[in-house]
Fold this sequence. Notes:
Order of helices and strands: HHHHHHHHHHHHHH
Number of helices: 14
Strand content: under 5%
Shape: globular
Number of strands: 0
Structural class: mainly alpha
Number of domains: 2
Low-confidence stretches: none
Radius of gyration: 23 Å
Amino acid sequence: MSYAKPPLPIEGQVQRLLERGLAGDRDELARHLAVVSYTRLEAYWHPFQNPDRSFTPGTTFDRVWQRYVFDRRLRLLVLDAIERIEVAVRTQLALHHSLAHDAFAYAEQPSTLPRMKAWQHRRFREALDDQIQRADEIAIQRFLADHGRDHAYLPVWLAIEVMSFGSILTFYRGAETAIRRTVADRFGVHHSVFESWLLALNVVRNFCAHHSRLWNRVLGVKPKIPNRRHDSRWHVPVPIGNDRIFGILTIAAACLQRIAPQSDWPMRTRGVLEAFPGIPLEAMGIPQNWLDCPIWTASIDSDEKEERDA
Protein backbone atom coordinates (compact mmCIF):
# COMPACT_ATOMS: atom_id res chain seq x y z
CA MET A 1 0.00 0.00 0.00
CA SER A 2 1.48 3.35 -1.00
CA TYR A 3 1.82 6.16 1.54
CA ALA A 4 -0.78 8.82 0.75
CA LYS A 5 -0.49 11.34 3.58
CA PRO A 6 0.22 14.83 2.22
CA PRO A 7 2.63 17.18 4.04
CA LEU A 8 0.94 19.61 6.41
CA PRO A 9 1.97 23.24 6.88
CA ILE A 10 2.53 24.40 10.46
CA GLU A 11 -0.95 25.92 10.61
CA GLY A 12 -2.45 22.58 9.62
CA GLN A 13 -0.44 20.75 12.27
CA VAL A 14 -1.64 23.18 14.92
CA GLN A 15 -5.24 22.79 13.80
CA ARG A 16 -4.99 18.99 13.93
CA LEU A 17 -3.71 19.06 17.50
CA LEU A 18 -6.38 21.50 18.65
CA GLU A 19 -9.12 19.44 16.98
CA ARG A 20 -7.84 16.36 18.80
CA GLY A 21 -8.24 18.12 22.14
CA LEU A 22 -4.78 19.43 22.97
CA ALA A 23 -5.15 22.65 24.95
CA GLY A 24 -2.77 25.47 24.12
CA ASP A 25 -2.27 28.84 22.53
CA ARG A 26 -2.35 28.61 18.75
CA ASP A 27 0.56 31.01 18.23
CA GLU A 28 2.70 29.29 20.86
CA LEU A 29 2.05 25.91 19.26
CA ALA A 30 3.06 27.28 15.87
CA ARG A 31 6.31 28.75 17.24
CA HIS A 32 7.34 25.47 18.82
CA LEU A 33 6.36 23.30 15.87
CA ALA A 34 8.42 25.52 13.58
CA VAL A 35 11.63 24.54 15.41
CA VAL A 36 10.80 21.09 16.87
CA SER A 37 8.96 18.86 14.44
CA TYR A 38 5.52 17.36 14.92
CA THR A 39 7.09 13.92 14.49
CA ARG A 40 9.66 14.50 17.25
CA LEU A 41 7.10 15.89 19.69
CA GLU A 42 4.68 13.07 18.94
CA ALA A 43 6.78 10.78 21.16
CA TYR A 44 6.10 13.12 24.09
CA TRP A 45 2.37 13.62 23.68
CA HIS A 46 1.66 9.99 22.81
CA PRO A 47 1.19 8.96 26.50
CA PHE A 48 -1.61 11.55 26.73
CA GLN A 49 -3.52 10.16 23.76
CA ASN A 50 -6.41 7.73 23.48
CA PRO A 51 -6.36 4.89 20.92
CA ASP A 52 -8.13 7.18 18.41
CA ARG A 53 -5.33 9.76 18.93
CA SER A 54 -7.60 12.21 20.71
CA PHE A 55 -6.07 13.75 23.83
CA THR A 56 -7.27 12.90 27.30
CA PRO A 57 -9.20 15.79 28.89
CA GLY A 58 -6.97 18.42 30.47
CA THR A 59 -3.89 17.70 28.34
CA THR A 60 -2.04 20.95 27.70
CA PHE A 61 0.79 21.64 25.30
CA ASP A 62 2.79 23.14 28.18
CA ARG A 63 2.71 19.76 29.92
CA VAL A 64 3.96 18.04 26.76
CA TRP A 65 6.64 20.67 26.24
CA GLN A 66 7.90 20.24 29.81
CA ARG A 67 8.53 16.57 29.12
CA TYR A 68 10.44 17.45 25.99
CA VAL A 69 12.57 20.00 27.83
CA PHE A 70 13.20 17.53 30.65
CA ASP A 71 14.28 14.85 28.20
CA ARG A 72 16.68 17.27 26.54
CA ARG A 73 18.29 18.17 29.86
CA LEU A 74 18.45 14.49 30.79
CA ARG A 75 20.27 13.64 27.54
CA LEU A 76 22.84 16.39 28.14
CA LEU A 77 23.36 15.11 31.68
CA VAL A 78 23.83 11.53 30.51
CA LEU A 79 26.22 12.61 27.74
CA ASP A 80 28.33 14.45 30.30
CA ALA A 81 28.72 11.30 32.40
CA ILE A 82 29.37 9.05 29.40
CA GLU A 83 32.07 11.43 28.16
CA ARG A 84 33.96 11.12 31.45
CA ILE A 85 33.60 7.35 31.49
CA GLU A 86 34.63 7.04 27.85
CA VAL A 87 37.76 9.17 28.30
CA ALA A 88 38.79 7.11 31.32
CA VAL A 89 38.29 3.86 29.41
CA ARG A 90 40.38 5.15 26.50
CA THR A 91 43.15 6.12 28.92
CA GLN A 92 43.15 2.84 30.82
CA LEU A 93 42.89 0.62 27.75
CA ALA A 94 45.73 2.30 25.87
CA LEU A 95 47.92 2.39 28.97
CA HIS A 96 47.60 -1.25 29.93
CA HIS A 97 47.67 -2.68 26.41
CA SER A 98 50.84 -0.74 25.55
CA LEU A 99 52.53 -1.70 28.83
CA ALA A 100 51.68 -5.37 28.32
CA HIS A 101 52.82 -5.37 24.66
CA ASP A 102 54.08 -2.24 22.86
CA ALA A 103 52.86 0.93 21.23
CA PHE A 104 51.90 -0.64 17.90
CA ALA A 105 50.91 -4.17 18.95
CA TYR A 106 47.17 -3.45 18.80
CA ALA A 107 47.47 -3.07 14.99
CA GLU A 108 50.55 -5.08 14.04
CA GLN A 109 50.14 -8.09 16.32
CA PRO A 110 46.62 -9.51 16.21
CA SER A 111 47.65 -12.08 18.81
CA THR A 112 47.62 -9.29 21.42
CA LEU A 113 43.86 -9.07 20.88
CA PRO A 114 43.17 -12.80 21.26
CA ARG A 115 39.40 -12.53 21.55
CA MET A 116 39.14 -11.02 18.05
CA LYS A 117 38.87 -13.29 15.05
CA ALA A 118 41.10 -12.46 12.07
CA TRP A 119 38.25 -10.87 10.12
CA GLN A 120 37.22 -8.83 13.16
CA HIS A 121 40.75 -7.50 13.52
CA ARG A 122 40.81 -6.51 9.84
CA ARG A 123 37.53 -4.63 10.23
CA PHE A 124 38.83 -3.02 13.42
CA ARG A 125 41.89 -1.71 11.58
CA GLU A 126 39.85 -0.61 8.55
CA ALA A 127 37.48 1.35 10.77
CA LEU A 128 40.43 2.90 12.56
CA ASP A 129 42.11 3.85 9.26
CA ASP A 130 38.95 5.72 8.29
CA GLN A 131 38.75 7.44 11.69
CA ILE A 132 42.41 8.52 11.43
CA GLN A 133 41.86 9.88 7.91
CA ARG A 134 39.09 12.12 9.22
CA ALA A 135 41.00 13.22 12.34
CA ASP A 136 42.60 16.65 12.56
CA GLU A 137 44.29 16.29 15.93
CA ILE A 138 47.56 18.20 16.12
CA ALA A 139 49.39 15.33 17.85
CA ILE A 140 48.40 12.91 15.09
CA GLN A 141 49.44 15.26 12.31
CA ARG A 142 52.76 15.83 14.04
CA PHE A 143 53.36 12.07 14.43
CA LEU A 144 52.54 11.41 10.77
CA ALA A 145 54.86 14.19 9.65
CA ASP A 146 57.74 13.02 11.85
CA HIS A 147 57.30 9.24 11.77
CA GLY A 148 54.79 8.41 9.04
CA ARG A 149 57.46 6.99 6.72
CA ASP A 150 58.62 4.51 9.35
CA HIS A 151 55.30 3.45 10.87
CA ALA A 152 52.13 2.31 9.15
CA TYR A 153 50.09 2.82 12.32
CA LEU A 154 49.82 5.30 15.17
CA PRO A 155 50.96 4.40 18.67
CA VAL A 156 47.97 3.12 20.59
CA TRP A 157 47.73 6.19 22.86
CA LEU A 158 47.22 8.38 19.79
CA ALA A 159 45.04 5.94 17.87
CA ILE A 160 42.65 5.41 20.74
CA GLU A 161 41.84 9.12 20.91
CA VAL A 162 40.19 9.04 17.47
CA MET A 163 38.43 5.69 17.84
CA SER A 164 34.65 5.74 17.95
CA PHE A 165 32.98 4.40 21.07
CA GLY A 166 32.12 1.32 19.01
CA SER A 167 35.79 0.76 18.22
CA ILE A 168 36.68 1.21 21.89
CA LEU A 169 34.13 -1.47 22.75
CA THR A 170 35.60 -3.77 20.07
CA PHE A 171 39.10 -3.15 21.45
CA TYR A 172 38.01 -3.91 25.02
CA ARG A 173 36.15 -7.05 24.00
CA GLY A 174 39.12 -8.28 21.98
CA ALA A 175 41.74 -7.73 24.67
CA GLU A 176 43.09 -10.53 26.83
CA THR A 177 41.34 -11.21 30.11
CA ALA A 178 44.11 -9.72 32.25
CA ILE A 179 43.78 -6.34 30.54
CA ARG A 180 39.99 -6.35 30.57
CA ARG A 181 40.09 -7.22 34.26
CA THR A 182 42.58 -4.43 35.02
CA VAL A 183 40.46 -1.83 33.23
CA ALA A 184 37.24 -3.04 34.86
CA ASP A 185 38.88 -3.05 38.29
CA ARG A 186 39.41 0.69 37.90
CA PHE A 187 35.60 0.96 37.81
CA GLY A 188 35.07 -1.55 40.61
CA VAL A 189 33.23 -4.31 38.75
CA HIS A 190 33.85 -7.69 37.12
CA HIS A 191 35.12 -7.43 33.54
CA SER A 192 32.06 -9.21 32.12
CA VAL A 193 29.76 -6.75 33.89
CA PHE A 194 31.83 -3.82 32.66
CA GLU A 195 31.68 -5.07 29.08
CA SER A 196 27.88 -5.07 29.28
CA TRP A 197 28.01 -1.54 30.71
CA LEU A 198 30.11 -0.30 27.81
CA LEU A 199 27.71 -1.87 25.31
CA ALA A 200 24.67 -0.30 26.97
CA LEU A 201 26.40 3.08 27.33
CA ASN A 202 27.32 3.01 23.65
CA VAL A 203 23.67 2.47 22.71
CA VAL A 204 22.47 5.22 25.06
CA ARG A 205 25.20 7.55 23.79
CA ASN A 206 23.83 7.07 20.27
CA PHE A 207 20.31 7.92 21.46
CA CYS A 208 21.64 11.11 23.01
CA ALA A 209 23.81 12.04 20.03
CA HIS A 210 20.79 11.74 17.72
CA HIS A 211 18.55 13.66 20.16
CA SER A 212 16.24 10.66 20.52
CA ARG A 213 13.72 10.25 23.32
CA LEU A 214 15.41 8.85 26.41
CA TRP A 215 13.45 9.47 29.58
CA ASN A 216 10.82 6.70 29.35
CA ARG A 217 12.53 4.41 26.84
CA VAL A 218 12.68 0.67 27.50
CA LEU A 219 16.27 -0.34 26.82
CA GLY A 220 16.78 -3.04 24.22
CA VAL A 221 20.39 -3.59 25.33
CA LYS A 222 20.36 -4.21 29.06
CA PRO A 223 23.49 -3.81 31.18
CA LYS A 224 24.28 -6.46 33.77
CA ILE A 225 23.68 -5.60 37.40
CA PRO A 226 26.47 -6.73 39.77
CA ASN A 227 25.71 -9.89 41.70
CA ARG A 228 24.14 -9.26 45.10
CA ARG A 229 26.75 -11.44 46.78
CA HIS A 230 29.56 -9.30 45.35
CA ASP A 231 27.97 -5.85 45.71
CA SER A 232 24.73 -5.56 47.67
CA ARG A 233 24.46 -1.82 46.97
CA TRP A 234 22.67 -2.65 43.73
CA HIS A 235 19.99 -4.65 45.51
CA VAL A 236 19.41 -3.40 49.08
CA PRO A 237 17.46 -1.36 50.06
CA VAL A 238 16.71 -0.26 46.48
CA PRO A 239 16.83 -2.88 43.71
CA ILE A 240 18.29 -1.32 40.57
CA GLY A 241 16.61 -2.41 37.34
CA ASN A 242 18.43 -2.63 34.03
CA ASP A 243 15.69 -1.97 31.48
CA ARG A 244 15.13 1.77 32.01
CA ILE A 245 17.25 4.89 32.18
CA PHE A 246 17.59 4.73 35.98
CA GLY A 247 19.87 1.73 35.58
CA ILE A 248 22.11 3.77 33.27
CA LEU A 249 22.06 6.77 35.63
CA THR A 250 23.10 4.53 38.53
CA ILE A 251 25.88 2.94 36.47
CA ALA A 252 27.11 6.43 35.64
CA ALA A 253 27.01 7.46 39.30
CA ALA A 254 28.93 4.33 40.33
CA CYS A 255 31.58 4.87 37.64
CA LEU A 256 32.02 8.54 38.50
CA GLN A 257 32.51 7.63 42.15
CA ARG A 258 35.59 5.71 41.02
CA ILE A 259 37.05 8.01 38.36
CA ALA A 260 35.79 11.49 39.28
CA PRO A 261 34.77 11.51 42.95
CA GLN A 262 34.95 15.31 42.94
CA SER A 263 32.22 15.56 40.28
CA ASP A 264 28.92 17.21 41.18
CA TRP A 265 27.13 15.09 38.56
CA PRO A 266 25.00 13.12 41.09
CA MET A 267 23.78 16.38 42.64
CA ARG A 268 22.99 17.79 39.21
CA THR A 269 21.04 14.64 38.41
CA ARG A 270 19.00 15.07 41.55
CA GLY A 271 18.52 18.74 40.68
CA VAL A 272 17.14 17.97 37.22
CA LEU A 273 14.69 15.41 38.62
CA GLU A 274 13.51 17.84 41.30
CA ALA A 275 13.15 20.67 38.78
CA PHE A 276 10.50 18.68 36.88
CA PRO A 277 8.18 17.25 39.56
CA GLY A 278 5.53 16.38 36.97
CA ILE A 279 7.67 13.72 35.31
CA PRO A 280 6.47 10.20 36.26
CA LEU A 281 9.51 8.57 37.87
CA GLU A 282 8.16 5.06 37.36
CA ALA A 283 8.42 5.50 33.58
CA MET A 284 12.17 5.93 34.08
CA GLY A 285 12.46 2.93 36.37
CA ILE A 286 13.09 5.21 39.36
CA PRO A 287 11.59 3.97 42.66
CA GLN A 288 10.28 6.53 45.13
CA ASN A 289 13.07 5.71 47.60
CA TRP A 290 15.87 5.91 45.02
CA LEU A 291 17.94 8.25 47.20
CA ASP A 292 18.23 5.44 49.76
CA CYS A 293 20.36 3.49 47.29
CA PRO A 294 23.91 3.46 48.79
CA ILE A 295 25.43 4.37 45.43
CA TRP A 296 23.40 7.59 45.26
CA THR A 297 23.59 8.29 48.99
CA ALA A 298 27.38 8.16 48.99
CA SER A 299 27.67 10.27 45.83
CA ILE A 300 25.24 12.98 46.92
CA ASP A 301 26.50 13.09 50.52
CA SER A 302 30.01 13.62 49.15
CA ASP A 303 28.81 16.46 46.91
CA GLU A 304 26.97 18.13 49.78
CA LYS A 305 30.04 17.86 52.01
CA GLU A 306 32.21 19.52 49.35
CA GLU A 307 29.66 22.34 49.03
CA ARG A 308 29.72 22.89 52.82
CA ASP A 309 33.54 22.85 52.88
CA ALA A 310 33.91 25.20 49.91
